[in-house]
Specification:
Number of strands: 10
CATH superfamily of the largest domain: Aminoglycoside phosphotransferase (APH), C-terminal lobe
Helix content: 40-55%
Radius of gyration: 20 Å
Largest sheet: 6 strands, antiparallel
Shape: globular
CATH class of the largest domain: Alpha Beta
Structural class: alpha+beta
Distance between the termini: 45 Å
Number of domains: 2
Number of helices: 11
C-alpha cells in the first residue's frame, strides 16, 4: 500500500462516517481499518498463486465479488465498494470506477467484538444454544447453496488433490520453522493413503450433490452473534476451487477450529445439531480427512505471515506459535483419518 494512503487511512478525520479513532489490523492478504461504526478492508497487492490481488483491476473485481457473496450469510452488513484516489494531490473517497482510483476498499458495518464467537469462546461466555443456532444457519445455507456440475469434480480425489498438493508444495520453505520434516511427510503419506483407500467415498458424496458453493473459510473469527442473529462473514471470494467443496469440509473447518481453541465439547455440539438439521450418513467418516486439511491450511496461512515485511516482529512470533499448534493438530487428525 502507498505509504501516504496508509497514513490517511490511519487518520480518523479521513473517513466518510465520523469516528474518533481507527484500529489497523492485518492478515496475510488484507489491511482492515476499524472505525466506530464501520470496517474497511483493503486487499494487499499480493499473488500466492491460489490468490491473485496483484493488479488494481483484480482487487476491484474481487471487492465487488466479496460484497455479493457475503450478502448470502450477512445481509445488510456488506455496504459496498469505495474507490480511493488522489485529486489535487490529496487522497479522497470516490466511486470505485473513477479514473483517479488507485485503490479500493470494501465497506462493512462493524460487528461488535464482544459478539465474535472466538472472543466468547476464549472468555468462556458462550450462551446456551449458541452452537444450535450456528448449526441451523450453516445447515440451511448448505441446503440452499448452489450446485454446479462444473465444480462437482472438486469433491473427488482427482479434483481435491490439487488443494492438498498445493499445500504441501507451499509449505516446503517452512520445514524446520513451523513444521517438522517428519510431520510433513507423515501427513502427506496419510493423505495419499486416504485417496487410495477412501477415494470412492469422496466420489460418492460428489455424485450425491454434496459439493456446493459454500463459505470456504468457516471458523470462529468469522461468526458473530449480534442482536439475536448469527452473522457469518468474510467468505472466500478469490478462488472458486476453495469455495466450492463438499459440505463436510466446511463442517470440518469449524469443528477443527473449536478443537484448536480447546473447546471440543462445542465442536461436538455443533456437529450433532448440524446432523439433526441436515442428516448425512457418511459425514463422520470423512470428517478427519477434511479436519486435517483445514488445520494444515491454517498452519500454512500463519506461516505466510512470517514472510510479510509489514507484520511486526511480535505478531510474527505469535503467528509462528499458532502455526506450530495447527500443524500439530493436523498430524493428530492424520493419525485417525484412514
Amino acid at each position: 500500500m502507498d505509504p501516504s494512503l496508509l497514513e490517511r487511512l490511519l487518520d480518523p478525520s479521513f473517513y466518510p462516517v465520523p469516528t474518533r479513532k481507527v484500529e489497523h489490523l492485518q492478515t496475510h492478504i488484507s489491511h482492515l481499518f476499524l472505525t466506530h461504526e464501520r470496517a474497511y478492508k483493503v486487499k494487499k497487492e499480493v499473488n500466492f498463486g491460489f490468490l491473485d490481488y496483484s493488479t488494481l483491476e483484480k482487487r476491484r473485481a474481487f471487492a465487488f465479488k466479496e460484497v455479493e457473496l457475503n450478502s448470502r450469510l450477512s445481509p445488510h452488513i456488506y455496504l459496498g465498494v469505495w474507490g480511493l484516489g488522489r485529486r489535487g494531490g490529496e487522497w479522497e473517497w470516490m466511486p470505485p470506477r473513477e479514473p483517479e482510483v488507485e485503490e479500493v476498499a470494501v465497506e462493512m458495518v462493524r460487528l461488535p467484538q464482544e459478539g465474535m464467537l472466538k472472543e466468547m469462546v476464549m472468555e468462556d461466555r458462550v450462551p446456551p444454544n449458541t452452537m444450535a443456532k450456528i448449526a441451523r444457519k450453516v445447515a440451511r445455507f448448505h441446503e440452499e447453496a448452489l450446485e454446479d456440475p462444473n465444480f462437482t469434480s472438486l469433491g473427488t480425489p482427482q479434483g481435491f488433490k490439487k488443494n492438498t498438493d498445493e499445500n504441501f508444495h507451499q509449505t516446503k520453505e517452512f520445514v524446520g520453522i513451523t513444521i517438522s520434516p517428519w510431520d510433513l511427510e507423515f501427513i502427506k503419506d496419510k493423505t495419499e493413503e486416504f485417496y487410495r483407500r477412501r477415494g470412492t467415498l469422496m466420489e460418492e458424496r460428489a455424485m450425491q450433490g454434496l459439493v456446493k458453493d459454500c463459505h470456504g473459510d468457516l471458523h470462529s473469527q468469522h461468526i458473530c452473534l449480534w442482536e439475536g442473529r448469527v452473522y457469518i462473514y468474510d467468505c472466500i471470494e478469490f478462488n472458486e476451487r476453495f469455495r466450492y467443496s463438499d459440505v463436510a469440509s466446511e463442517v470440518a473447518f469449524l469443528t477443527m477450529d473449536l478443537e484448536f481453541l480447546s473447546v471440543p465439547h462445542l465442536a461436538q455440539e455443533f456437529l450433532e445439531h448440524y446432523l439433526k438439521e441436515r442428516p448425512d450418513t457418511t459425514l463422520r467418516e470423512i470428517l478427519p480427512f477434511y479436519q486435517c486439511y483445514r488445520a494444515f491450511v491454517r498452519g500454512k496461512v500463519e506461516s505466510f505471515l512470517l514472510k510479510d515485511p509489514a507484520i511486526p516482529k511480535r505478531k510474527k512470533l505469535e503467528a509462528l506459535l499458532r502455526a506450530h499448534r495447527y500443524f500439530f493438530l493436523a498430524r493428530r487428525y492424520a493419525e485417525v483419518m484412514v
